[in-house]
Amino acid sequence: MNRKDKAQQIQHILDELFPLPEVPLHHRDAYTLLVATVLSAQCTDARVNQVAPLLFAKADTPQAMGELSIDDIQEIIRPCGLSNSKAKAIAGLSQRLVESHQGEVPRSFDELEALPGVGHKTASVVMAQAFGIPAFPVDTHIHRLAARFGLSSGKSVVQTEKDLKQLFPRQSWNKLHLQLIYFGRKYCPARGHDSSTCPICSWISA
Quick check: is 121 catalytic? Predict the structure, then answer.
């Protein structure tokens, strides 16, 4: 079976298991999603969803975040790890939004990736889940699944994103990104994975 046929079957399985996947990071708008996504680097979504509301209770707009010191932000987000760099990024991107974008989160990859602390994956999450613009955010988990399923060479997240975009219809990217996240957590973990009980791996290896 070629990759294209395999991708179609995988999409069918994911649609059955997770027909209406929700964005795992709790947020109210594009700005709070952007900040939550920055916090999620090397941190679980569950932890972010515990910590982010404490930060947003103090500041949930770029203007309000600008009133907090980096130390204030760092103290709140410390449980998420990498708190020094994340606090600087949140403060910096908030300032840039106020100075260059009238306090609004821009709707383009180039402008998002120009913000402090915002890489391609974070920009992709915001474009896809805040603005509904087709993107395929690839984190380490999706990168791992794509290699495990034989959909990508797995050489880099950049190559994995390119491969997945070629295999799946553009209009499905935003949903598939979320479906793969939930599938990996429930059925296809990195450790202790039993391929015989995995709805996709058991079929692939049969």
Answer: yes
User: Is 186 labeled as catalytic in the residue annotation?
Assistant: no
With b for 16 or more beta-carbon neighbours within 10 A and e for fewer, the 169-198 pattern comes to eeebbbbbbbbbbebbeebbeeeeeeeeeb
Asked if 35 and 85 sit in the same domain, the reply is yes
Cα(49)–Cα(39) distance, rounded to whole angstroms?
10
Which of residues 111, 129, 147 is at a domain's end?
Answer: 129
The series of mean pLDDT values per 10 residues for the chain, 206 residues long, is 93 97 96 98 96 98 97 98 98 98 97 97 97 95 94 91 97 97 95 92 84
Of 60, 121, 163, 175, the catalytic one is 121
Catalytic residue, candidates 45, 60, 139, 163: 139
Q: Which domain holds residue 110?
A: 30-129
